[in-house]
Structure prediction request, 295 residues.
Amino acid sequence: MDRSKLCGCKGVRTCFVCEKKFNLTPTINSESLKKLSNASYCSYCNLLWSGWNAYEYKNHPNHTGTSYYLDGIFIEHEFINEAEETMLIKNLDTMPWDVSQSGRRKQNFGPKCNFKKRRLSMGNFNGFPVSTKFVQDRFDKIPILKNYFTIEQCSLEYRPEMGASIDPHVDDCWIWGERIITLSLQSDTVLTLTPHNIKYNNQYNTDYIPNVKCLPIPVNHVNYPIDVVRVLMPRRSLLVLYGKPRYLWEHCILREDIQERRLCIAYREFTPPYLKGGEKYTESCNILQKAKCFW
Ligand SMILES: O=C(O)CCC(=O)C(=O)O
Ligand SMILES: [Fe+2]
Prediction:
């Protein structure tokens, strides 16, 4: 089944286009997730509240039912204003979009990374679009983003008519540092966190997680009463995932949570070995220099 001329999907990933043409069925079944114990994140009290509805945070402070605590999720509402959002979307859309998996499109600005061989190179990385610079500059305002130095910036587009989604995954742990940032644009969606069922040793390069031996992997099965966490990502908000939600849970965006076109800009930093003073710095110093450029 060669889908290279049809869409961007590979392996188990699918979109409406290839599902129709090859009679494929999507792998993720949200109905089965709804049957698990689920809770939604409230960004105002930093707690999870029982239930699937990700808009539960709007009931704050009048939540009812049981609450749970999971450290490692941060949301800043209205990180950018409406005029800035309009301007960002307009500027992103002046640049070409590349097809990606599961009906998404993307614009990638960052070095070339071979996650399997764990090899890093400049590739055609040339810095970042100047129209997006103010977003990176504003990271300084957020205390948990202290010393955040962006190495990769990736715009993603999700359209309902493509059946766009992103399958459960953990962002690579060898090259990408602890703090994963996402700026959401154009419409709200939900990030769904699910138990990380390890499929094979070192999947996502989890052996490279700092202090991995101290972390109870997979935490959910061992001692956490919740199997699915729903995190609303309102348009114009900034989400930061770190700690356990970044390393020990997979995150995904379900097709049913894309109701309108949604864009986001995802940001990644290097892991400590590739930062100044780290043991891999000789391999990364040119890339760190390049990541200061805006064009
Ligand atoms: O679209 C999003 O908010 C999540 C994207 C994501 O998880 C990724 O690019 O690794
Ligand atoms: Fe991700």
In short: The pocket of fe (ii) ion (ligand 2) is lined by residues 169, 171, 251 (CB under 6 Å). The first strand starts at residue 38 and ends at 42. The first helix runs from residue 16 to 22. The two ends are 40 Å apart (CA to CA).
